[in-house]
Amino acid sequence: MNDNNNKETNQKHPVQGGGGTRLVVLGAGESGVGAAFLAQQRGFDVFVSDFGGIADNYKKQLEDWNIPFEEKQHTDELILNAVEVIKSPGIPDKAPIIKKLHENGTPVISEIEFAGRYTDAKIIGITGSNGKTTTTSLTYHVLKDAGMNVGLAGNIGKSFAYQVATEKFDWYVLELSSFMLDDMFRFKVDIAVLLNITPDHLDRYDYKLENYAASKFRITQNQTAADYFIYCADDPETIKGMKERTFGAQLLPFSIQQKFEPGAYLDNNDNIVINTTQEHFTMSIQDLALQGKHNIYNSMASGIVAKVLELRNETMRESMGNFKSIEHRLEFVANISGIRFINDSKATNVNSTWYALESMTSDVVLILGGVDKGNDYSMLNDLVKQKVKAIVCLGKDNKRIHEAFDDMVEIIVNTSSAQEAATVAYHLATKGDTVLLSPACASFDLFKNYEDRGRQFKDAVKEL
């Protein structure tokens, strides 16, 4: 088993702060800076250390709050004297400083774990390899529209810790990645949602899918009979993982292949039906704001959460019908000379790209590539044969993409900037086609992150 799931030993007694107890935050991004602010507010002696450079906006916040920090290094003597360390989800356990902390017996936790100690709010936690940002955003939208006092955090928006320090929400909808879950121990999710488990980030999990799956199932830890676990009954890895585990929470499955009561299912391939202990909810899939098979699952998961919270059917129908898709996730950019441009930069794994291609109804010029995380592209073969007329590679090393698709697609072109990729794709497409940026890879070779990649692509499209 992944040793991420055997780290409970140092987590028995959370540090309470006050009296200048030393707490170190590793990583000065959104979650780290938010955690530092909350820690300072709670009386800790806080120090922030980032092995890379710190963005100017975060540096200014730390300076304004008089929180000491260092960048482009980790100084052992300033870190190893901490009573507890909050680590950015992006820092792997094999990083030298983390190894030293573990050898030292210093508890290393996530920002979510830390912030959870200081709020009485109820938590809806959403995880999965694909669809979690969309489902988290939709769930937040439905709850907010219903008049609930709800915050949105985790892998999305303002950090959970910063909101705990500055807001007073009754509920939070948290998007939780496997990296966040790895460093959560006592934290409890009142309503847990697991959308799916497909190979992703396996470089962080000894290239073993069962280790990655074990991280995803951590979302159910500490749950009791008063809580809910909402899961996809059509996802083979989820079902496999459930057979090996026991759950304290009430189980609510969703499926488009079979009928579940209680749970959610598809009636006559046309209506979502959700039944919990509350009045049944039905809605035509044609009326959902989010279209495509994968979004039926996302809408079902959000709908079950809403019914568990006893929201009115009319309110749910309205908000599930008017939700606007999120940036960088199958986002329509422009229609130029009859060619549609779609920004799906958030597709950083093969499965996400599969979902994107599956929802396309025209011929596609596909922009793929970036930092390959050990991708197996074979799952795309059928969709590529059916729908893709050309591939534009956007990355420094495109060898794996060529190996996967050279025999399948007549035209594969290498490019090294968003502008070049957009221009080449435009010339390869004809009226009625779709140019789809859905890279299946991380973005760090040419861009700061997937948002930067998506924005550069959108800017480039607007200049065509």
Automatic annotation (TrEMBL):
Positions bound to ATP: G128, S129, N130, G131, K132, T133, T134
Coiled-coil ranges (or none): none
Protein's GO biological process: cell division; cell wall organization; peptidoglycan biosynthetic process; regulation of cell shape
Enzyme class (EC, first level): ligase
Catalytic activity reported: UDP-N-acetyl-alpha-D-muramoyl-L-alanine + D-glutamate + ATP = UDP-N-acetyl-alpha-D-muramoyl-L-alanyl-D-glutamate + ADP + phosphate + H(+)
Domain Mur ligase C-terminal: 328-441
PANTHER family assigned to the protein according to its UniProt record, in alphabetical order: UDP-N-ACETYLMURAMOYLALANINE--D-GLUTAMATE LIGASE
GO molecular function: ATP binding; UDP-N-acetylmuramoylalanine-D-glutamate ligase activity
Domain called Mur ligase central: residue spans: 126-305
The enzyme's E.C. designation: 6.3.2.9
Residue ranges with Basic and acidic residues bias: 1-11
Region (Disordered): 1-21
Name under which the protein is recorded: UDP-N-acetylmuramoylalanine--D-glutamate ligase
Pathway this chain belongs to: Cell wall biogenesis; peptidoglycan biosynthesis
Subcellular locations according to the entry: Cytoplasm
